[in-house]
Design brief:
Elements lengths: L4 H12 L6 E5 L16 H14 L3 E5 L1 H17 L6 H20 L5 E2 L4 E6 L4 E6 L16 H4 L2 E2 L7 H10 L22 H7 L8 E4 L5 E5 L22 E6 L4 E5 L5 E12 L8 E7 L7 E9 L2 E11 L6 E6 L2 E11 L2
Parallel strand pairs: 1-2, 3-6, 7-10
Antiparallel strand pairs: 4-5, 7-8, 9-10, 11-14, 11-16, 12-13, 12-15, 13-14, 15-16
Helix pairs in contact: 1-2, 1-6, 3-4
Length: 353
Amino acid sequence: MSGGVDSSTAAGILKERGFEVIGATMCLGRIHQNSIGGRRCCDASSIEDARRVALRLGIPFYVFELGEDFEKEVIQYFCNEYLCGRTPNPCILCNERIKFGSFLKKALEMGAEYVATGHYARIEYDKTEGEYLLKKGIDRRKDQSYFLFSLKQPQLHHILFPLGEFRKEEVRKKAFYFGLPIHNKPESQEICFISENSYHSFLTERIKNSLLQPGPIFDQDGNLLGRHKGIAFYTIGQRRGLGLAKGKPLYVIGMDRGKNALFVGEEREVYRKTFVVDQLNWISSKKVESSIQAHVKIRYNHPGAEAMVSFRGEGQWIVQFKLPQKAITPGQAAVFYQEDKLLGGGWIKEVMD
């Protein structure tokens, strides 16, 4: 229970269905005592909101101290990815290693059979294959299956997603029906451990590296156009914040870590068709060994597009879209679907064309 409307309503729905429900939230500690590390989905005020919801529902409530695990598995990953010139997705790591890793382990040790969250996704058991399927939530606008691609069968066996069959407006109505004090609480959209509108200050405080130092901005022909603030502060496809006045919009199309250089071009130059993914996770235990056609999403708000996913060797796969897609970004997740079923996914390692 994060203290928000979704996880709170999920608890109410499960109690309504006859489950014995225990409320629990994660205490992730504070990264800093200054303005950088204050706001989180699991900060003191959110924990108190979750406690009030548990009291209203009449269920026990616990707080799991997971600050050290969060620092190791999520915060360090977040910083390291930027240092490697990639754009991280900490929510995926948090789901895999914290919510359905450390948190799930503690819940099972307490005697729980399942961990339920407020994710908009569905889990179904395929009796024929004897394994679990992970599917998109009914509400396509809120579907969060993209963030869950790295879950494995043993984890899915102990997970419930009560909101997968609901639309957001129905969830808020349910919360009001249950008399929950957070039924109209605004949603949190930003990275939970970043208290400001930008992650720049967070990185500057935590790491010292040449990638945080200013450097040159070039066009495709090698012409010097200006200076950047540190290539860790930019991502592929970015247009704002370049500080260039060239009479036409320019976008980040590449980076050179060795030269601490940023490369920019016109919007058409941001589009690519082919890229490499590694660290693949297939939801099914029956792994794909050659190639498949799939609908591939390259970031959460990407609508997805048809592509061929082919085995390259040495744990890597090549994804080739039928049509070029904008801003394929190393460090982000590429997630594969067939209709509403999530097949699996991996991490974008290299853009090939």
